[in-house]
Amino acid sequence: MSIFDTVKSWYHPGLSKNVAICLLYYNCVQGTYLLRDSQSNPGNFTVSVRTNNSVMHIPLYKESIFYIFGKLKFTTISRLLSHFDHYPIIAGSAGSSTSLKYPYPNNILEPPIYERITLQTEAGTIPSKSPYYLQSFFIGNKESCLMKLGSGWKDEHALEFYDLRDAIEAEWDDTYSKSNSFRIKFPSRTFYFYTTDDDDAKEWVDLIQYKLRYYSEEIQAKKPSQSLVSQASAST
What we know:
The protein is an alpha+beta fold.
């Protein structure tokens, strides 16, 4: 029996580190955790934990006869799971501690991660056709997922807020001859981004496309069905 067969309710196969960070940090309380595949060590696992002000990642793997979680060793899966059942406490880098209390299940509808994206300006007016450089998540700033690098990238005030529910599409784009580029199109304007590598760009495009589908399905679910509309028309 493998680890993920036993903890399948809070095992999230295919979940990347970046998505786990965004999911736990922006939508969960301290002490929430989940199990995912390790990206740096394929075949092993990682437990991602929402701490007080960040997300920690603790390796979980099998070595010889032992199951190793952080610095602890367990001879059986049942003893490993018993450890989680007793709300283990992990220490953060700043000396704070977090108790693992809430396993995040994989069978619930994902909450909207990107209700708001903060785009920070680079000292002055940004040219309308200038591509933006997309960096990874900045956990130190709760409102910041997308940021522009430059002399003023630490500015505290955002240029403007854009709600992803208003977006039309998110697609790959090579308009500016930049590798790892994509665009997010809104009714009034289109934003262009590029990332440090292809995998990072793919994660952003896949996740934003998922969110757009999620919003579209949410809107459709709230609309009355055609049969109900027909019945209402016939009765009036």
